[in-house]
Design goal:
The protein is an alpha/beta fold and 307 residues long. The chain has eleven helices and nine strands. The protein has helices at 17-34, 59-70, 91-99, 115-122, 138-152, 170-181, 210-216, 238-245, 249-254, 275-278, 285-304; strands at 48-53, 74-79, 105-110, 126-132, 159-163, 185-189, 205-207, 219-222, 260-262. Helix 1 packs across helix 11 (285-304) and helix 5 (138-152) crosses helix 6.
Length: 307
């Protein structure tokens, strides 16, 4: 069996195109499994995985938990809000206490960029980064690529737009790395205040006009406005943002071709996309959720092969 070139999944930047293809191919097999009447396989029996979420999450946490159950792993769930972290316990102490319970793998979300990398250097367990601040969210990028491949086939030469709050988005950065490694062209679109200064150095093009971007692309990934990460106002009002960068059905139907609509969730309905766009036949938002379980099963299965 092929193996990943890395011992941890810390970010898409750190893995190769071959690693990405291996995870996506393995995910295809697991997608078949989760659509069977009996959805469990014993692949990770006797492997113990701790889910450490120092930041709020619904979809990612549930997706990882379900993926672990489908693989027959033993799991420990840790939420910082109800833990000794509130009493001042450090990240390393928290993790070492959990590792003392003989944990093999840690899935961690943390508000500090680089937290997963820091942890991987300090503890003896496989680490999967489930989002570190505004840095990376590798499994989201992998499930987005998997969902796009299902819809568009080989992504080499395909045109993918990432629209919205690029500045605060770990999804955008991981997607850019992943799509480029798979040969896609990437364009980002949003208000100038929400586009990082360095972004063009990553080899992406920048466009401030939403319609031009939509006419260019084969698929559009509509990002959520991350108000919780914005310490100053980056645009005058939500209403103005929606007028300039929100996607509604009228605009979608007026494009010269049918494009694929994606969203990493949670959706602010009526802000970045309207309900009739989110629920339209061009949207693959629910497919992304389903594929997330298969992709996370694949990532954990392949990393467990290195335990």
């Amino acid at each position: 069996m092929s193996q990943l070139s890395v011992n941890h999944l810390l970010g898409i930047k750190d893995i190769t195109k071959t690693d990405i293809e291996l995870i996506l191919d393995t995910a295809k097999n697991f997608k078949e499994v989760i659509n069977r009447p009996i959805k469990k396989v014993p692949s990770l029996r006797d492997v113990t995985i701790a889910n450490l979420f120092f930041e709020n999450s619904t979809r990612t946490r549930l997706s990882f938990e379900l993926a672990q159950k489908r693989l027959s792993a033993d799991t420990i769930n840790f939420a910082a809000a109800s833990s000794s972290v509130k009493k001042g316990e450090t990240l390393i102490d928290t993790v070492n206490n959990i590792l003392a319970m003989k944990v093999d793998m840690i899935v961690m979300r943390h508000s500090s960029p680089g937290a997963a990398v820091f942890l991987s250097q300090k503890v003896n367990a496989k680490i999967i980064n489930a989002g570190d601040g505004a840095h990376e969210h590798p499994t989201q990028a992998l499930l987005d690529a998997f969902s796009l491949q299902e819809k568009l086939g080989d992504l080499k030469g395909k045109k993918i737009a990432i629209i919205g709050d690029i500045l605060h988005s770990r999804v955008a950065l991981s997607n850019i790395f992943c799509l480029q490694k798979l040969g896609a062209q990437v364009k980002v679109c949003g208000p100038k205040t929400l586009i990082p200064k360095y972004i063009e150095s990553l080899g992406v093009t920048v466009e401030s006009d939403l319609r031009k971007t939509l006419e260019w692309c084969d698929a559009a990934n509509m990002l959520r406005i991350q108000l919780e990460r914005q310490d100053i106002k980056f645009f005058p009002s939500i209403r103005e943002y929606t007028m300039l960068y929100g996607l509604n059905k009228t605009m979608l139907d007026s494009l010269s071709k049918k494009i694929v609509i994606m969203h990493p969730g949670p959706i602010n309905r009526g802000v970045e996309i309207t309900s009739d766009v989110a629920d339209s036949s061009q949207s693959i938002i629910l497919e992304q959720v389903e594929n997330g379980v298969a992709v996370r099963m694949a990532a954990m299965f392949l990393l467990a092969g290195k335990i």
